[in-house]
Design goal:
Blueprint (H helix, E strand, L loop, with lengths): L18 H11 L2 H14 L3 E4 L1 H7 L8 H5 L9 E2 L3 H7 L6 E3 L3 H9 L6 H11 L12 H6 L5 H11 L12 H12 L2 H9 L1 H5 L3 H8 L3 H12 L15 E3 L3 E6 L2 E6 L6 E4 L3 H7 L3 H38 L1 H6 L9 H8 L3 H7 L4 E4 L2 E4 L7 E4 L2 E5 H14 L8 H10 L6 H10 L5 H4 L4
Parallel strand pairs: 2-6, 5-8
Antiparallel strand pairs: 1-7, 3-4, 5-6, 8-9, 10-11
Helix pairs in contact: 1-16, 1-19, 2-6, 7-9, 10-11, 13-14, 16-18, 18-19, 21-22
């Protein structure tokens, strides 16, 4: 065997994932809540960014009451005549809170909003974000300050003042490092030195409810100690409890679509998401800075701000274009309901728009669209197909809907077997295997015919 080592020059192309490109990709797939959280963080970290409030938006342009959000935000696009932009009034009237889904609010969002009222240096903000981003499910920062921040090149002496500020936020006791500190933070709010002493000096005895030992140590009567224990028992040992799964709030759709007079009206919902712009003081900052380090810092922040604004604009444009293409492809669904959902894959939309499949996948991730049939995830509209006897294929969701309708309307004393369902669908020119019917029935939570049969 002849073994040789040779040198060869090979040319290849690859995509370099720069931080800016990573941010652009990340923004595409963020949900509304995550985007708002990200923008709030950017507003805290970048002095050249400022939030645009509704009153400012109205002052900046001569938009009339009939002018739409998309007329302002997407004036550079031309739309097919099939799609008309709704008025702002129609957009507000079309939103139906009864059709909304829900998810839990996030502790991080709440704490970040409160943190905005404190004057912190850039480094202190970074420390605060590291702490808030690493709270456990109870709302505690249970990691070792020394080992955690040593990796970040930050001393404990720099961390402690920031931690003290964070521990002033609500819910009381949040950002504590353990249960004892959590209760002690709440005790300080009560301004009762006896409770503070009991928690700080007799904590093991408090947990074991050693009332007599506490009474002897503090020089109190047994009744006084019992009274203090009652007050401690009313404290919250889990500050993040209010943000647990059972506490929910509305999920607001990212896209609205309505069918009016033969035309589809599509609009993006920007309400509730922070709107940002380049600060009006950016030029002033540039003129005022003197030192080279400050100039470099400002240049980096300006570049970062411009890139963020460009990326946000591209995100909105992509979301709008993908939603528009999706509604065109699924027109039958939006006109007639879920039974008319057609097979659709990411590649179909990507090819139509000249985008990569991964881009379509990211922009439809964690996004919702409201129609007259309810609120659906954008991913819902990408589904596999089932043959329809030579005619246009049906989506698996449409087949499931047919099966569900048959099962809901069946005679409970003579329920339909899977084979009978196959036969009924075949008469409707829908070709589907019995094992497929069985799989879909089980996925929808329906038992077999023998278990569904009602006894006389």
């Amino acid at each position: 065997m002849d073994l040789r080592q040779n040198q060869a020059l090979k040319l290849s192309s690859q995509l370099l994932m720069t931080p800016s490109l990573q941010q652009a990709i990340k923004l595409l797939q963020l949900s509304r809540h995550e985007l708002n959280q990200h923008l709030t963080k950017e507003l805290l970290e970048n002095p050249l960014l400022e939030e645009v409030f509704e009153s400012e938006e109205k002052e900046e342009g001569p938009a009339t009451s009939e002018e739409t959000v998309e007329d302002i935000s997407f004036s550079c696009f031309e739309m097919d005549s099939l799609f008309e932009r709704p008025s702002k009034k129609n957009l507000e009237e079309s939103f139906d809170f009864e059709k909304t889904l829900t998810e839990r609010p996030k502790l991080f969002d709440s704490l970040l909003a409160q943190l905005a009222y404190f004057e912190l240096s850039s480094k202190q903000r970074q420390i605060a974000l590291l702490i808030l981003g690493n709270l456990d499910e109870k709302g505690f920062f249970s990691l070792s300050l020394e080992s955690f921040f040593d990796k970040e090149g930050v001393s404990v002496a720099e961390v402690l003042p920031v931690l003290k500020i964070l521990q002033q936020l609500e819910p009381h006791g949040v950002c504590a490092r353990n249960l004892q500190e959590c209760l002690l933070l709440q005790a300080k709010e009560l301004k009762d030195p006896l409770i503070e002493t009991m928690i700080s000096k007799y904590f093991p005895d408090l947990l074991s409810r050693s009332e007599e030992k506490i009474a002897r140590g503090m020089g109190l009567s047994l009744e006084e100690v019992k009274g203090l224990l009652v007050r401690v028992s009313k404290m919250e040992p889990v500050p993040a409890r209010a943000f647990a799964q059972e506490n929910t709030h509305f999920i607001v759709p990212d896209v609205f679509v309505s069918f009016e007079g033969g035309n589809f009206c599509i609009s993006l919902n920007n309400h509730g998401v922070a709107q940002v712009k380049l600060s009006d003081q950016a030029d002033t900052f540039s003129r005022c800075v003197q030192g080279s380090k400050d100039k470099v810092f400002l240049a980096e922040k300006l570049k970062s701000a411009n890139w963020l604004l460009k990326t946000l604009e591209q995100r909105q444009k992509t979301l709008f274009q993908v939603s528009e293409a999706l509604v065109k492809k699924q027109r039958a669904f939006f006109e007639n309901g879920p039974l008319y959902l057609r097979p659709l894959i990411l590649k179909d939309i990507a090819d139509d728009l000249g985008l990569h499949e991964s881009t379509v996948s990211r922009i439809t991730s964690s996004k919702y669209i409201q129609s007259s049939w309810g609120i659906f995830k954008l991913k819902y509209f990408f589904t596999s197909c089932v043959s329809q006897g030579g005619e246009e294929a049906l989506s698996s969701q449409a087949i499931k809907q047919m099966i569900k309708t048959l099962l809901n309307e069946e005679d409970s004393y003579a329920p339909l077997s899977d084979q009978k369902i196959v036969n009924i669908l075949a008469k409707r020119s829908v070709s589907v295997a019995r094992r497929t019917v069985t799989k879909y029935r089980q996925q929808m939570g329906f038992a077999s015919a023998s278990f569904r049969k009602k006894k006389y």
